[in-house]
Amino acid sequence: MQLVAYANRLPVTRGRHGWRPSAGGVVSALRPALEPRESSWIGWDGGAGDLPRRVEGLDVELLPVRLSRREVDDYYHGFANRTLWPLLHGLVEQPVFERRWWRAYRDVNERFAAVEVDGGGLRWVHDYHLMLVPSLLRRAHAGPIGFFLHVPFPPPEIYARLPWREQLLDGLLGADLVSFQTETYRDNFVRTCARLREHVRVEGQTIALGRRRVRTAAHPISIDAAALAEGARSAATERSLRGLRTQFGSRRILLGVDRLDYTKGIIERLRAIEYLLAERPELRGRLAFVQIAVPSRGEVREYRELRRNVEELVGRINGRFTDPGGDVPVHYLYRGLPPERLLAYYRLADVCLVTPLADGMNLVAKEFVTAQAAGGGNGALVLSEFTGAAVELRDALRCNPFDLEGLAATIEHALALDEGDRRRRIERMAADVARHDVYWWTEQELAAARKARSAA
Ligand code: F6P
After folding, report:
1. Ligand 1 centroid vs 298 CA: distance in angstroms?
2. Helix 419-435 to helix 225-232 angle, to the nearest 10 degrees?
3. Cα of 7 to ligand 1 centre, how many Å?
4. Which tens digits make up the pLDDT trace of 167-200?
5. Could you tell me the domains of the chain?
6. Is the pLDDT assigned to residue 453 strictly greater than 80?
7. Which atom, in ligand 1's list, is nearest to the CA of 27?
8. Which of 103, 372, 414, 437 has a Cα at 20 to 30 A from 223?
9. Is 359 a catalytic residue?
10. 256-272: per-residue pLDDT in tens?
């Protein structure tokens, strides 16, 4: 069956040697579904006027949506990133409500839905940027429509603050299947529909709209575990790992890998490390915390402020705990890394700190356990209970990132765990990720969307 994916960004990036497939989580997740069949991807062209219809190394037709500077500001920086992002992440920042942004969001969603595609097939819409697209497609498209939300869906009392709450729910209810990362987000959505939409009837996990039925599902997204494990054992990764081991010597390594986003709990993590170093002087000089912070959404005020706050805090901790002539406790890298370098860091780490305040899934946690197991490692995973990944990775050391002293104690506990225990935990988690990898996720999503349509 032909497949048409809709996502905010197209899955390609322009590098020094021309266009190539992008490396992000959404792209890696959708490729296994799209490439084996006739498929297209509708997305924002990122301002490039000369985008080719196809790019080498990616067997998907690219259908660009062009946006003006003003539309990017209002729809993407504004409504998507300053209204919906903080709201859907449970108000970890204050959402901003602007009518102008809402109008731009509606117009841009209409533009996405209006892109002409030859043939029928399954329409698969992704994420919070495009919540109106399912109902817009339904007007003209007879085939099945699926929607997958990559981020959390909050409880009704939080969602209800949105001035355009009914419109977005009706947008989603245009799909045959609305999927979420976890049962909790799915339940939140179903309860929200029951509370805010009078014309719907909730029948278990199905929403009835007159004679139509909208199915809901929880399908946790994942990684290509076999490919990642192979990369983690590659000669390039081994080389990089040897270099890092020489640099860091016998110091124990704590690792954080995140987009620089306020949902990721980077400030809380740094504060916990500062507290630990203050309370346990014997750890000073024996610990290094490497924070890889990938630049993100720099046009948005809250992200610029976060960068300033993170950098100030890194400076404060290093100023406080560095011995003259000695190494700093916090190694802060404000950039993305080539894959073999990132994999080498995953293998090097004694403890990976995945401590978001809210996160739909978090693929770093899945990548870390897979890379560790592939390299025969026994690193520990400290994982926030407010991530989708915490539902699956039961052998992680769970933490509440809002509790600074509790987080510091969990990091200390992770460092003290017996080696055999750590190894067993990593192996069990990696086996679970390998079973529920991105191919498994794809099958669940596509099968459920087809079934939902035939039963609708
Ligand atoms: O996880 C949500 C998400 O919006 C992804 O869809 C996206 O790849 C990532 O965050 C990065 O965000 P942006 O596309 O805004 O840079």
Report:
1. 13
2. 140
3. 10
4. 999 999 999 999 999 999 999 999 999 999 999 9
5. 3-221+439-451 (3.40.50.2000), 225-435 (3.40.50.2000)
6. no
7. 8
8. 414
9. yes
10. 999 999 999 999 999 99
